[in-house]
């Protein structure tokens, strides 16, 4: 068993976020409608719709760059 797949006591398979996105996009590529993808996966409907929308716009599944504080490093010279 790998870290990217989790099976609970009821036998429901949960995927990590990246694998879940891949599964949603691959299902969408095969022509499956979002309503069927929602039923197939354990994802919430807004999550599936967002993944499909991002895939349509960007034609990819990679995470985009995020805003945030830039990394800094302190050396002896800086102090």
Report the principal-axis shape: elongated
Average predicted local confidence, pLDDT: 72
Q: Helix count, per DSSP?
A: 3
Largest sheet: 2 strands, antiparallel
Percentage of residues assigned to helices: 40-55%
How are helices and strands ordered from N to C? EEHHH
Structure classification: mainly alpha
| Radius of gyration using CA atoms only | 18 Å
**SS strand fraction:** 5-15%
The end-to-end distance, rounded to whole angstroms, is 48 Å
Contiguous low-pLDDT stretches (5 residues minimum) are none
Characterise this structure.
With 79 residues, the chain is mainly α. The chain has a domain at 5-58. Helices cover 43% and strands 8% of the residues. It is built from three helices and two strands, in the order E-E-H-H-H. It has helices spanning 17-29, 34-40, 45-58; strands spanning 5-7, 13-15. A two-stranded antiparallel sheet has the order 1-2. Strand 1 and strand 2 (13-15) form a beta hairpin. Helix 1 packs across helix 3 and helix 2 (34-40) crosses helix 3. The chain is elongated, with a radius of gyration of 18 Å. The model has no long low-confidence stretch (mean pLDDT 72).
